[in-house]
Fold Mechanosensitive ion channel family protein.
Amino acid sequence: MDKELQTLQKFYNIAIEFLTNYSFQLIGALIIVIIGWFAAKYTYTLLMRLFESHHFDMTLSKFVASVVKMLIFAAMIIIALGKVGISIAPFVAAIGAVSLTAGLALQGSVSNYAAGVLLIISRPFKVGDTLSIGNFYGVVEEIKLSYTVLRNEDEELITIPNKKMIGDVLVNSFEFRIVESSIGVTYEEDPTKAIALIKEVLSGFKEVSNTHKPVVGIAKFGDSSIELGLRYWVPTKSYFKTQFEVNLALYNTLHVNNISIPYPQREVRILGEKV
């Protein structure tokens, strides 16, 4: 019992001595922490208002504001520790080691987040735009910090890492996607008449964009036909459906107007037979 009392008395004396010698430092450190906390909260609120006034992406705004808030508070804690005589060098070294380890372990994820930040700042596309990247295309459904989601005509959701969105060639046709096609007519036909009929068919489809006027003309002269090229824009959400309907309407219109569409023909001769 006496030993326990002596131990408690020893700790009490140490505490009194510590408070006597470092009371002002402790009070100063506490004040620094409190100021740091309020400064971090104020900075967070200020940044959020600033981002909101400039219509920044909400996800990016919260991410940046939270990081700044955390850094300010962490810096004030380190200053407070130094105020009471605790060496901050080990803390700085530990933070550096943890940051390096986390960076190496999350290298792929970090690059996706960094690419996401660049996408949100530079805004090469927005939700609702039509994108083509590699073998994928679709309407932008959602933009996150680490990935972007596209929805194609088959209602499939395509998730693409943002580092691919930054690193690959990206085609943004906004709400529409171009259809490039061709149709052949015989050399006996009047190409001007055929072009006029094709334009008439395209103008009859409300799905075909009026903002981007359809382009129809002679693409090339083939061995047995004049190739007429077509370029027109349709909504990505109904790309194939509209293209197939246009093709059928073109065939019917040319057929009704007696415009011949050539097809390969083969002439067979029997050896020894006089021609």
User: Anything to note?
Assistant: The chain is about 55% helix and 20% strand. The CA atoms of residues 38 and 156 lie 47 Å apart. The first strand starts at residue 130 and ends at 133. Strands lie at 130-133, 136-143, 147-151, 157-161, 170-174, 176-185, 215-221, 226-235.
